[in-house]
Give the backbone structure.
Amino acid sequence: MSTNNSGKKIDVAYVAQLARLELTGEERVRLAGQLDRILEYVDQLRQLNVDGIEPTAHAIPQVNVFRSDEARPGLPLKEALKNAPQRMNDLFVVPKVVED
Amino acid sequence: MDYESVIGLEVHVQLKTKSKMFCACQNKYGSPPNTQVCPVCLGLPGTLPVMNEQAVKMTVLTGMMLGCEISPYSKFDRKNYFYPDMPKNYQISQYDMPLCKSGHIDLVKECYPKDAQNQVSAAKRIGITRIHLEEDVAKSFHLETTSSIDFNRAGTPLMEIVSEPDINTPEEAFAYLSTLRQILLYGKVSDADMEKGQMRCDCNISVRPVGQKEFGTKLEIKNMNTISGVRRALAYEIQRQTGCLKKGENLTQETRRWDEAAGQTFGMRSKEMAHDYRYFPEPDLMPVDTAVFMNEVKSWLPELPAAKKQRFMSDYRLTDYNAGVLVADLELANFFEVGAAPGKNPNAVANWVVNDLLRDLSESKLAIAQSPIKPLDIAELVEFCESGKISSRQAKDVFVEMFKTGKMPHRIIEEKGLSQVSDAAALETWCDEAIAANPQSVEAYKSGKTTALNHLKGQVMKLSKGKANPKTVDGILIKKLSA
């Protein structure tokens, strides 16, 4: 978690930038408050004594939930491209991306 | 001042499964755009990934082949970033608990570029830091004002194999990649064709004065699509960086793109902002316990190139060179073994394959699978030579005909009426003629220059139109000259 100078727990502007969200000043203030409250709620976990408890990636003690390697047809092309904002030659067309 | 380079490679390898990593779409190269997609690999909201068992096992097999420790317990994580090749805005990858850790690849001479093999002295071991499994992203095409995306590749099972910075020259990088590719092909885990993007390599490289302990500034090079391209890109980059350092310039940490046509690297216009991936455990996938299937995967372990080479040398008495060339290509090694099985002279079979067949295949741009000559044809040809039915010179002609027509040796020998003349009377006539026509050679031989015999023998072969049995000719000439 990044902490900025004003002492808030979340740098809303930075997180918004990572998610490519454009926020107004008012939204930024409102969301900062809401996100802080969420963090406080989760923070309650810190009050628990977890000595001797092994970290886990999942709450359910289950492993190896697999699918066997068999192929099935996916979506028809028309269906697949249905939600594309723009398409050309059966490709999704998006604004030009800067990186490479 | 002398400079040295430090190189680490990150290699991405697409696994050869039937279906994708987290959905059942077909995993196949070269289909029309967006025809192997479903809500999961398109990253539509509300979908859930389900792990492909075979992909996990193939990664473990790769780890075993590369001498890695296999993690008993492994999990997947989300790597968050914003890019249209991954519309759910995270890639499912592995962060702190990869499937395999700390392995190695031993570089052998045959895997270096041909022109650099004579500079290779001792075998060198390159460490492998880790191998993790993730999903490949979609393929983007960048146009003038837009980018367009094909999702067929999205979700292909992808291994990332990370080396230690143990590589010091472009030639070692070449050898590392060829050896790795060989092993992947032996394990049948990937077709590892770099031009199809099935194996992709990013290079981390820094240059420092010899003797300096700290690493120099690390730069990354991308976009090489052949193993020789990696070698050229590294050679260029080492020269460029060394040049900068010698002029007292500072290098900046950046990613550079290799332009094969220009033979240069160019800085990429990537954003200055450092990536902040905010990894966290993937809540939609359960962890992996590898102990359950370790024995099964162990039973898949193939005989690896190094072991096969040793066996070829001890069982078939092949030379180090022949064995090395044969095992470099699994199909070629198998071709040889089929041909060597029936005969008593496996080395002769190896010689035909390594010298003649490989040359003709490469001239006709054919793969071993497309060879017009089959392994047993070579076995038959060797048998004809061994029995003295045809001379080695005639055998060369038969081989040319075999390659051209695909006919078996006995048919060609029959059709051309080839056979070796060992009949003493006929041979003696030719020998007498050769001796009479070449008094100088006779003189030279008698004065102790034994090599003069070869000239006389050559004349006899000419007179016999290549049909004379050279061993018998030797004997007759010596007898006549010493008389």
